[in-house]
């Protein structure tokens, strides 16, 4: 290995729904973080690993920084903000607009307190005209002292290679933390739970998804090694939500199950027999015990 091999930790921050998980999946070239149009899709710090000849980048995808409304919200914001001082580079994702809202100003304020190099990533450039991008850069350039500004489209893969090059410039020389073929530190069970949650988020009504969690009860490979049996429970906060998640004659649950199964099979490269149940646990998002039970760990505070 070359002597000047670089390695370090990079966090992606930004308001909910700005495309952090989509960008991370694009850079890694594999789907690890779940994505949906609904805010607060990502609840945990997800570490993914990008390795090339020049170095290794460990991406830490954090929950979006926003105003917390309950204990789960507080947990998510604390995790996101604490990450800022623990990494080597910060990627701040924004949308291509010339209006800087209160949410962005709140993030800029958080960033002014850290010494970490901040790279501004203007995402979703495929949604605006080329000349508008210059006005966006002009709007943002003085709100914070940026190391670099990179426009890109995570969804289309435009200019995302440039992000890797720019990040490498600011990483310290260091060891390779993970094997070259490692793409994430997430346990398989957790990724499976998140894939099921993603399908539920995408298929269900607006008000329900915030109040759901998924717990994997069993994940066992059959003796012949040709199939995995997975039992999972979708937990929601209200009896009325349970009915909607199950759907008429089980139709919604079936749809969530079949879409999730397809992705889990792609991920694990093996046939999957997925059984889903739905349980009601009122106010689980305000219970420390239940939050921990669904994999949101207090030690991340």
Notes on the structure:
The protein has helices spanning 20-28, 71-83, 102-112, 130-140, 160-170, 188-203, 239-246, 251-268, 288-293, and strands spanning 6-13, 46-51, 55-61, 89-94, 118-122, 148-151, 213-221, 227-236, 271-280. The chain is of the alpha/beta class.
Write the layout of secondary structure elements.
Elements: E1 6-13, H1 20-28, E2 46-51, E3 55-61, H2 71-83, E4 89-94, H3 102-112, E5 118-122, H4 130-140, E6 148-151, H5 160-170, H6 188-203, E7 213-221, E8 227-236, H7 239-246, H8 251-268, E9 271-280, H9 288-293
Parallel strand pairs: 1-3, 1-4, 4-5, 5-6, 8-9
Antiparallel strand pairs: 2-3, 7-8
The biggest sheet amounts to:
6 strands, mixed
- Globally, the shape reads globular
**Which spans of ≥5 residues are poorly predicted at pLDDT below 50?**
34-45
Mean pLDDT: 82
Q: So what's the oligomer here?
A: single chain
Distance between the termini: 36 Å
Order of helices and strands: EHEEHEHEHEHHEEHHEH
């Amino acid at each position: 290995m070359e002597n000047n091999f670089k390695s370090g930790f990079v966090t992606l921050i930004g308001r909910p729904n700005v495309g952090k998980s989509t960008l991370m999946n694009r850079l890694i070239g594999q789907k690890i973080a779940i994505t949906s149009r609904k805010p607060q899709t990502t609840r945990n710090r997800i570490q993914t690993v990008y390795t090339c000849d020049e170095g290794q980048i460990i991406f830490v995808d954090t929950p979006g920084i926003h105003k917390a409304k309950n204990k789960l919200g507080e947990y998510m914001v604390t995790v996101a903000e604490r990450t800022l001082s623990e990494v080597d580079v910060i990627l701040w994702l924004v949308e291509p607009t010339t209006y800087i809202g209160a949410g962005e100003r709140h993030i800029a304020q958080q960033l002014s307190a850290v010494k970490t190099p901040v790279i501004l990533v203007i995402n979703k450039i495929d949604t605006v005209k080329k000349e508008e991008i210059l006005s966006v850069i002009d709007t943002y350039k003085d709100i914070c002292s940026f190391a670099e500004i990179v426009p890109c489209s995570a969804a289309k893969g435009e200019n995302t290679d440039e992000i890797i090059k720019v990040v490498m410039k600011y990483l310290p020389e260091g060891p390779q933390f993970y094997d070259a073929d490692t793409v994430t530190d997430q346990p398989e069970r957790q990724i499976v739970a998140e894939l099921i949650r993603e399908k539920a988020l995408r298929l269900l009504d607006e008000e329900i998804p915030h109040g759901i969690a998924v717990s994997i009860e069993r994940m066992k490979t059959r003796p012949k090694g040709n199939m995995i049996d997975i039992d999972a429970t979708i937990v929601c906060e209200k009896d009325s939500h349970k009915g909607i998640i199950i759907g008429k004659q089980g139709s919604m649950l079936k749809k969530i199950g079949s879409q999730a199964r397809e992705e889990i099979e792609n991920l694990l490269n093996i046939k999957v027999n997925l059984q889903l149940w739905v349980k009601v646990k009122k106010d689980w998002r305000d219970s420390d015990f239940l939050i921990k039970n669904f994999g949101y760990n207090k030690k991340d505070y």
